[in-house]
Write a structure and sequence with these properties.
172 residues; alpha+beta; nine-stranded mixed β-sheet; 5 helices
Length: 172
């Protein structure tokens, strides 16, 4: 069963394996929704990894491994991608990653998308929270995480590491 999440300004649609293969091959006509080419360029390098992971998982958990297409309700265009890097680990956490077309930045849309996906993930008993790794220089992404109540838990030379704990914080 295909699910779609909805927020005030967005739809989030988990892409099937076939849709990911079409994106990788730039066969956008096979998707129901037109996708902003700048959004595609941002995830191009990661799509093959997503495809390999999805080939190894059951259909029931594919939403934890795929990209979710972020669709703007006004234009009905795909404007970005968000997704987990797998189902929750043994501690109950899953890492999130995201990108949005430059022309849709600084409007709160990625914050809205992350809030929506976090609410979906929180409904799963085995998911205790979400983690994220962000370059120290990526101030836009840092703001998104902070607006969603993620807390910085550590840093290394290049990255900050964030976590959103569901037992502490009910939603973004």
């Amino acid at each position: 069963m295909q699910i779609t999440l909805e927020s005030e300004r967005l739809f989030l649609k988990p892409l099937s394996l076939n849709e990911l293969l079409n994106i990788k091959n730039k066969e956008l006509g096979a998707l129901e929704t037109a996708v902003d080419i700048e959004a595609l360029d941002l995830v191009d390098a990661a799509v093959p990894k997503k495809i390999e992971k999805m080939k190894k998982v059951y259909e029931e958990v594919h939403e934890w491994y795929t990209y979710w297409l972020i669709i703007d309700k006004n234009s009905h265009r795909g404007i970005g991608f968000i997704g987990f890097k797998g189902s929750p680990d043994e501690r109950g956490y899953s890492e999130v990653g995201y990108s949005i077309s430059p022309r849709y930045r600084k409007r709160g849309l990625m914050t809205e998308a992350l809030q929506t996906l976090a609410e979906w993930a929180q409904a799963f008993r085995n998911c205790k929270g979400i983690t994220a790794k962000v370059l120290k220089t990526n101030t836009g992404s840092i703001r998104v995480l902070e607006h969603c109540n993620f807390k910085r838990v550590s840093s290394d030379e290049t990255d900050h590491h964030y976590a959103l704990n569901f037992h502490v914080q009910n939603s973004c």
